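Need a sequence for this fold. Nothing fancy.
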């Protein structure tokens, strides 16, 4: 699951342990607040759109370790 708010996007890993017991991955790179997030069909890529006009793509990896 990915949530936006401010300049960063938080990505929660739902594999393994409950998300409430883990720390989300924080993705930064936008100069103005993130307005939209969307996963690609594969689920391992994420796109973020910011009010700064940038669209960033992120390659995610799955880890069995809690962050």
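Here you go.
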């Amino acid at each position: 699951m990915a949530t936006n708010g401010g300049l960063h996007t938080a990505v929660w890993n739902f594999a393994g342990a409950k998300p409430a017991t883990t720390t989300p991955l924080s993705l930064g790179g936008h100069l103005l607040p993130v307005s939209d997030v969307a996963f690609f069909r594969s689920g391992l890529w994420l796109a973020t759109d910011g009010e700064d006009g940038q669209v960033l793509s992120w390659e995610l990896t799955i880890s069995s370790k809690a962050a």
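For context: The first strand starts at residue 2 and ends at 5.
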